[in-house]
Each structure stands twice: as structure tokens, then as C-alpha cells.
Amino acid sequence: MGRNPGWEPTARARELGGELRQARERAELTMRDLSRQLGWSPSKTSRIECGLRGVAEMDVVLYLANCGVVRDELERLLDLAREPDGGHWLRSHGERLPDELRSLVVLESTAHTITAFEHMLVPGMLQTEEYAREVFRLAERFPPDAVERLVRARMARQSLLHRRTPAAFTFYLHENALRSMVGGPEVMHEQVMKLLLACSWPNSTIRVVPRAAGAAGTFEGPFWFIECAEHPPVVYVQNVTASVFLDGAEHLDVYRRIVAKLARVALDAGQSRSWLARLAGRHDVPRSQSDVPPSPPGTTLA
């Protein structure tokens, strides 16, 4: 990822820059101190850490060596520096949650607007503890002793919604995601009540995509459209074992059209709040009355 006159800042360059900055901070070095050790100007160090310029592999080696980074961590960051900027990149989840991906954390920390779409489940950012616990249990991919750690990690990530200067979130939730019974009526009632609470947060808008909208919104999988004030957008698409990040112009154009379509067919914020209130009332019934069949396809709450 060397420097050249036509180089443009990318999301992956910002990710690498963020990783380098964290390495410097862990070494308890100021930017000025590290720049002096490297023989660089503080401006060069700053632009690299902000992802505003390309950086040669040897510069990455020197930077990390002066921060005391060795072995596995050094190789991981060198692999990141060697990746080509091709408009997309893949990150494996490994044993972590998608929520814990460094690439996603870096993007979230600088975002000013995030538009999310989910068509099968309530998004992790809005899940209650019990709902998240059931999701992990039903996935049958996590050992029982790992579930509680995953739930804690998911709840901790929700602090993103309440930081001092949070991004503005718009959540498009398909009716199917809200009607899918996860953990029973009590869990669902608590979950829908949390969604109603989220409707009142100043940086959170929830819009329901009803089944009555037909096929609109059902063919696209879940995604995040992440916009930053000083950088081009990035689309985040989560799969079971890996996530894809897209910042190529051709990808962004497609997802802009999808977001525009969702905006046309979804209920507005006020209608969505009323819809959720009726759904919460439907789940708020005595346990003996809770075993009712789901609504037939194509219906909406009266």
C-alpha cells in the first residue's frame, strides 16, 4: 500500500492506521516521541494513523518495532498492510462475535450515520440479554460456557448508541424479524419494549418494513451502510463465519438504491412506534394464553 500521487484514502487504510495508533498508545509513546524515534515528521505519523496516506510495508515494520510489537501481532498487522485495496475485504470471525471485529469497531468509532437492515432477527445492537442468549443458544455453534461471555460482549457493544457523540442510527426491521418467536412470549415482550424505548432515543430511528410491502426488502440480506463525515461510506455485510466490507463505488451504488427502496416502503417512525406498541401488547398475555399460532403470511397487526 505504498504512496503514489493518485492514492485515495480507503476504509482499510483507516483500519490499519487505527491499529498502529493503538500499538503506539499501548507502548505509552506520544506521537511526537515516536516520530522523533522514526525520523519522521509528526504530520507524516498523524496522516498514517488517520488513514490519510499510504504506507510502505517497511514503514509499518519500523513503526511497530519501535512500539515493541513482535511475533503474531506483528504478522497480523503486516498481513493487513499487504492487503490490496480492491473495493472489498473479508474478515473471518474465528471464535469471536462479528460485533468484536476490529474492522467494524474502527468504522463504528468514526461513523456519523449508520443505516441498518435486518430481515430475520432483531439486530444485535438492539437485543435484550435474554433475546441474545436465546439467539446464541439456537445457533448451536457456541459451547454453553461461551454463551454468557458472548452475551456480555453484545451488551457492551450497545454502549455505541449512548456515547457522548453517537452516530445517528436508522434501523429498518422487516416484520418477519419482529414476528419470529425467539425464547417465547415473555422474551419477545421484553424485546419489543426495548425497541419501543429505542424509538425515543435522539440518535435512533426504527422503521418497520411490513409484509404488506410485498417482496421489497426480503431479497436483500442484512447489512449496515456506514457513513463518515470525512471519508467515503462502507457497507458491512455479515455472514455466519465471516463478514465482508465493501467500499468500491459499484457496491455503494447498489446499496444506496436498496436503502432508498427501504425508505419508500417502510412505515415512518411514528407508524412504526404504534405498530411495535400493538405487537408488545400481543405478547403481553398470561403464560397460559401465550401459545397462539403466528399470524398468517401477508398480514399486519390490526
UniProtKB/TrEMBL annotation:
Q: Where is the HTH cro/C1-type domain positioned along the sequence?
A: 20-53
Q: Which CDD domains match?
A: HTH_XRE (cd00093)
GO MF, one term, reads:
DNA binding
Name the InterPro entries for this protein.
Answer: Cro/C1-type_HTH (IPR001387), DUF5753 (IPR043917), Lambda_DNA-bd_dom_sf (IPR010982)
One family from Pfam that matches here is DUF5753
The protein in question is named: Transcriptional regulator
The organism of origin for this protein: Amycolatopsis antarctica
